[in-house]
Amino acid sequence: MDQSKPLKVRLTFSVILVGISLLFAAVVTDHWAVLSPSLEENTTTCEAAHFGLWRLCTKRIFLHEPGSKEKSCHHTPMGHQGCSNVHYVIFGGFFPLAEYSISAAAIAIFSVGFAIMGTICVLLSFRKKRDYLLKPASMFYTFAGLCIIISVEVMRQSVKRMIDSKDTAWIEYSYSWSFACACAAFVLLFVCGIALLLIALPRFPQNPWETCMDAEPDH
């Protein structure tokens, strides 16, 4: 057995743990996107919003200077502000966003489940010296990465539909740090899942007279 294999597995697993942390951060936080409306002339307030997989939070922002030349309240100075949470997934509010967000949240749950199952397999392979568990673990991590990037794309479509909808006042959007966490989690989980699979494969022959049967089998 390759003596460096345990070290490679542990290093890869360490990076995977970072990806899982980013995955959990993306799933449980509400800063996937920030929405802002246009400013009417002589207006004194505007309502911005940020949302995640589970809720949408609106902020009523009081402007210092009515009739500002700014076209959106996204970057305007904030006065007194309040935030009201809207659990649109449960109560069906903001329906242009709801049907997409339900799908994105469900897919994200699958991603978390795959990540947990992969971690269980890796931990069992450490404890019992069962290297064959690394193969299903690598597949679970790869599936987790694919699921979260699908969830990201669904949320992107959700934001576009929200902006295009005539039922909402929001006309501009920007992606926030929760969205970045989800994208980073995809890269780490997908790439490290493939890397873990390559590490778990039997050693290939290094000389012409060797065969794959000469490699030491997994414990």
Automatic annotation (TrEMBL):
Coiled coil: none annotated. Pfam families: Claudin_2 (PF13903). GO terms for cellular component: L-type voltage-gated calcium channel complex. GO terms for molecular function: calcium channel regulator activity; voltage-gated calcium channel activity. Keywords: Calcium, Calcium channel, Calcium transport, Cell membrane, Disulfide bond, Glycoprotein, Ion channel, Ion transport, Membrane, Transmembrane, Transmembrane helix, Transport, Voltage-gated channel. Gene3D superfamilies: 1.20.140.150. It is a multi-pass membrane protein. The keyword Disulfide bond applies. The chain crosses the membrane at residues 12-34, 102-126, 138-155, 175-201. It comes from the Eukaryota. GO terms for biological process: regulation of calcium ion transmembrane transport via high voltage-gated calcium channel. It is found in: Cell membrane, Sarcolemma; Membrane. Belongs to the PMP-22/EMP/MP20 family. CACNG subfamily. Component of a calcium channel complex consisting of a pore-forming alpha subunit (CACNA1S) and the ancillary subunits CACNB1 or CACNB2, CACNG1 and CACNA2D1. The channel complex contains alpha, beta, gamma and delta subunits in a 1:1:1:1 ratio, i.e. it contains either CACNB1 or CACNB2. Regulatory subunit of the voltage-gated calcium channel that gives rise to L-type calcium currents in skeletal muscle. Regulates channel inactivation kinetics. This is Voltage-dependent calcium channel gamma-1 subunit. It comes from Serinus canaria. The lineage of its organism: Eukaryota, Metazoa, Chordata, Craniata, Vertebrata.
